[in-house]
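[step 3/7] fold_predict: job queued, chain A
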Amino acid sequence: MAVGEIAAAVGTVPLAGGLVFCSHRYEREALAAALAERLPDVLLFGCTSAGEVGSLGYDNDSIVFVGFPRSVFDLSLVSFSDLDRFDPEEARKSVRQFAAKARGKAQDDLGENLSHVAIFLVDGLSHREELLTMTAQEALGDVDLIGGSSGDGLAFRETGVFFDGKFRRDAAVIGLLSSSRPIEVFSTNYYEPGAQRMVITEADAETRTVFEINAAPAAEEYLRLIGDPGAELDLTYFATHPLMVRTGGAYHVRSIQSVNPDGSLTFYCAIDRGVVLTIGEAKNRMAEMRGMFDKVRRKLGEVDHVIAFDCVLNRIDSDSRQLGREIAELYDKARVVGFNTYGEQFRSAHVNQTFTGLAVGR
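[step 4/7] structure written:
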């Protein structure tokens, strides 16, 4: 039924391609088959989500579809499988060749003076986001990369990246989107660094697990520094007490995914011994969001849509602060569609607990 509604909405509009973000609860083979049947000539890519984002704000058990009309868009895809054996040098060559060919095709189809952006989707359980993001952005040159890590609700068992008519694990896809319309990319978080500092003293970078902070058990020291030693650690607590690291002259969130039975902490992002962290303090989220959308409108003029890669921890934090209705109203007004991620990609960085967006002008 959901794919039928999508096909009906598309109607007879010729599409250069489309994005599909879906709940992990959908039966993937059946969904892929329905998309192939109802949208047989449309180049599609997408992923499973940790929640969907649209005019209702945060949603569950739904599908988000973004269609790109052929009259003003061009789309080409390149994909990667078996990420455990990812070869950066081969990937750089592949992406360079792909980008040159895709831009040439777009120019032939749409003419000169085009905007270009690379939409990147990757298995959110692969632990390969940093390497792939840096490699791809280097190869893309002046084309900005933006995207998100696929999710499966909060199960953390198996996510799916969709391309070539199938949902795949341990995979990634880049969609180079070109348009005669203006495009603006942006990324923001709603936290600022606090006064407390800590050092990772024992960690396993491969599994993103921290065993010791300040030479003490990680979870115990995290709670001590917050000043809340008896608190129960869960995703809501991690969402409202994020850790931040200073890189490239700015502070970025390094989100905790889970606490383990031995008191260690597993992160969504790369982490290693010697990293200095601080505890993030919340800013006025609604004011920050309104300012962010105002800034985008000043750059682009009227905005057609914002494609959002919105961290699942933002969603959890919004629930804990009872901001759902305000966020829904703002997302509806700003014409936001997208999905909740296990991490976001912005240019050459894999980041956490951000709202990362791609705004398309009218």
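[step 5/7] annotate
The longest strand covers residues 191-204.
The mean pLDDT is 95.
exit 0
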